[in-house]
Write a structure and sequence with these properties.
Elements lengths: L2 E18 L4 E14 L4 E6 L10 H16 L7 H10 L5 H19 L3 H5 L5 E3 L2 E3 L4 H13 L4 E5 L5 H15 L4 E5 L6 H13 L4 E5 L7 H10 L3 E4 L6 H10 L4 E4 L1 H4 L2 H13 L4 E3 L6 H13 L3 E4 L12 E3 L2 E3 L2 E3 L8 E4 L5
Parallel strand pairs: 5-6, 6-7, 7-8, 8-9, 9-10, 10-11, 11-12
Antiparallel strand pairs: 1-2, 2-3, 4-15, 13-16, 14-15
Helix pairs in contact: 1-3, 5-6, 6-7, 7-8, 9-11
Length: about 350
């Protein structure tokens, strides 16, 4: 199975509502799609969105990494020896994790098609259905309460609430408003996107604990590089603390685990550089008794489908954050995962299960 051709395409899909976090506001989901064609006719697809404030990757940078560096390395290689290919992809250029992730998922798409299996089965096949949360963007407490009620009415029972902008008192008011509006049965998890300082994070989380707001977890409360501060928060509160931006690579995951800086780890393919490295992070975490979430950036259903295949395949991945395609004004692919409210069903087709990719306005 020789790699004959690698192509890149740009796409842009408007969001139904602006997506706001402590780091950025997104109104259009931009991405680079990757298409890999093999000599046996198999075609694999991947996706990489630009997320400058997290991965540092722009659209032009992603395309340059793929077209100028990765493509010359991969062309004419035999995918039946994919261990050497993934090892080379890891080392051929530093960082550029989004470019690597897009190529990685396209390669896995080809490999699993060649094996005649859906990708999640090739990777382990632990389950074929998962449930996603839905994200409440950071806004005024009243608007966030309205959004939360709408998402619950749409069938979501886990809300991922963005905080980390403005005063701590405002963040607490946001969560109180949401909890009062949705009731006690809905699970609430917070994502501060590095927006708090360690002492402020401890004060905020303790205040929420004392108020009985029943927060499931808090994701990345402090700066990504501040592992000591992350540990300070983890050790000082009862609420589970999840590392996100602190963990891109297996080496960073090992350091978080060694220090016990967090209770949980959020794996994203755009941070890890794809499924190959993501599996190592999950295995390290599982060995240490740490459960993982798999999340995403603002991606189309193409990239989320690849992430869902990986997440569904592993027992240690217990939480799923795959709501991004539900925020988009239109679909970019047919096939892939299927949504039924919060439930996501993995495809029965081989590979990623992609039927068609829409590259132009119809």
């Amino acid at each position: 199975m020789i790699i004959e051709k690698i192509e890149t395409f740009r796409t842009a899909v408007p969001l139904n509502k602006p997506f706001k976090t402590a780091l950025r506001t997104v109104t259009v989901a931009e991405a680079t799609f990757v298409k890999i064609t093999c000599d046996n006719g198999i075609v694999g697809w991947g996706e990489a969105p630009p997320t400058l404030v997290i991965t540092g990757d722009s659209l032009s940078g992603i395309e340059a990494g793929i077209n100028d560096v990765i493509r010359p390395f991969l062309l004419n290689q035999n995918l039946l020896g994919y261990e050497a290919i993934f090892q080379g992809l890891k080392t051929i250029l530093v960082n550029n994790t989004s470019a690597k992730a897009a190529v990685d998922m396209a390669l896995y798409d080809c490999i699993s098609q060649n094996c005649g299996l859906p990708l999640y089965q090739l990777l382990g096949g632990f389950r074929n259905e998962i449930e996603t949360d839905f994200t409440v963007s950071v806004n005024s407490p009243e608007e966030m309460g309205d959004d939360a009620v709408e998402y619950v009415k749409n069938g979501f029972n886990v809300l991922k609430v963005k905080v980390g902008i403005g005063e701590i008192s405002t963040d607490i008011a946001r969560i109180k408003e949401i909890r009062n509006r949705v009731g006690k049965e809905i699970k609430i998890r917070l994502d501060a996107n590095q927006g708090w300082k360690p002492k402020d994070a401890v004060r905020a989380i303790r205040s929420m604990e004392d108020a009985g707001l029943d927060i499931e977890l808090v994701e990345q409360p402090v700066k990504a590089e501040d592992l000591d501060g992350l540990k300070q928060v983890t050790d000082s509160v009862d609420t589970l603390i999840m590392a996100d931006e602190s963990v891109f690579s297996p080496k960073q995951a090992f350091e978080v685990i060694r220090r016990r800086s967090a209770d949980l780890i959020n794996i994203k393919l755009m941070k890890s550089g794809g499924i190959y490295q993501a599996q190592i992070i999950n295995q390290l975490a599982e060995t240490a008794g740490i459960e993982c979430m798999v999340g995403s950036m603002i991606e189309t259903k193409l990239g989320i489908t690849a992430a869902a295949h990986f997440a569904a395949s592993k027992k240690n991945i217990t939480r799923f954050d795959f709501d991004a395609p539900l925020m988009l004004a239109k679909e970019s692919i047919s096939g892939g995962i299927k949504y039924n409210g919060r439930k996501i069903t993995l495809p029965v087709r081989t590979g990623l299960g992609i039927e068609q990719v829409f590259l132009k306005e119809e």
